[in-house]
């Protein structure tokens, strides 16, 4: 028996719809990154990008645990002396609600030549409206009970 190796021409992609107002940021990023990579497919081949398209809606209603809106800090540096900037998750959500989700999912993807293509298949929207109804995305029902 020979080992199966998927070819880029034989990859079939599906569309999935995730709701950011149902599960916390980390769990959402984990599910989305697995779909983008294609981890749960039988035809997984590490050097072939066989992942699916992922649509994330309701980014403005993002769920984070505890008080992470004030304590989670995103750092960036301009490269010049004294050029370090910081922004909390709450400030980032006010400016662009989609940035935190994209940043979290990007951090869960492996750093290789396939990363940019996988991120291009990620679509994040701040509201519940998206313009991909023609692709007939499959809604994944993810629930989270949380601490009571």
Salient structural properties:
148 residues, alpha/beta, Ribosomal Protein L13p, Chain: A
What does this structure look like?
- The structure is a single chain.
- With 148 residues, the protein is α/β, with parallel strands linked by helices.
- It has a domain at 13-63 and 97-139: Ribosomal protein L13 (Ribosomal Protein L13p, Chain: A), CATH 3.90.1180.
- 28% of the residues lie in helices and 17% in strands.
- The chain is built from 5 helices and 6 strands; from the N terminus they run βαβαββαααββ.
- It has helices spanning 25-37, 68-71, 89-95, 97-108, 115-120, and strands spanning 15-19, 53-57, 73-77, 84-88, 122-124, 138-139.
- A 4-stranded parallel beta sheet has the order 5-2-1-6. The protein has a two-stranded antiparallel ribbon with strand order 3-4.
- Strand 1, helix 1 (25-37) and strand 2 (53-57) form a beta-alpha-beta unit.
- The longest helix has 13 residues, at 25-37.
Silhouette: globular
Distance between the termini: 52 Å
Mean pLDDT: 95
How many strands, what sense, and barrel or not for the largest sheet?
4 strands, parallel
**β-sheet strand percentage:** 15-25%
Radius of gyration: 17 Å
Please identify the structural class as seen in this structure. alpha/beta
Assigned CATH architecture of the domain at 13-63 and 97-139: Alpha-Beta Complex
What is the helix content?
A: 25-40%
- CATH fold node name of the domain at 13-63 and 97-139: Ribosomal Protein L13p, Chain: A
CATH class designation of the domain at 13-63 and 97-139: Alpha Beta
Flag low-confidence runs. Answer: none
Order of helices and strands: EHEHEEHHHEE
């Amino acid at each position: 028996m020979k080992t199966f190796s998927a070819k880029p021409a034989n990859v079939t992609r599906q569309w999935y719809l995730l709701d950011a107002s149902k599960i916390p940021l980390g769990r959402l990023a984990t599910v989305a990154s697995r779909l983008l990579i294609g981890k749960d497919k039988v035809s997984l081949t590490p050097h072939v990008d066989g992942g699916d398209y992922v649509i994330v809606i309701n980014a403005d209603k993002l769920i984070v645990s505890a008080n992470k809106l004030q304590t989670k800090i995103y750092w960036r540096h301009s490269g010049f002396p004294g050029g370090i900037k910081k922004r909390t998750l709450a400030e980032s959500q006010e400016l662009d609600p989609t940035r935190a989700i994209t940043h979290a999912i990007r951090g869960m993807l492996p750093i290789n030549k396939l990363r940019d293509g996988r991120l291009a298949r990620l679509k994040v929207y701040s509201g519940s409206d998206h313009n991909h109804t023609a692709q007939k995305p499959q809604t994944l029902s993810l629930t989270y009970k949380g601490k009571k």
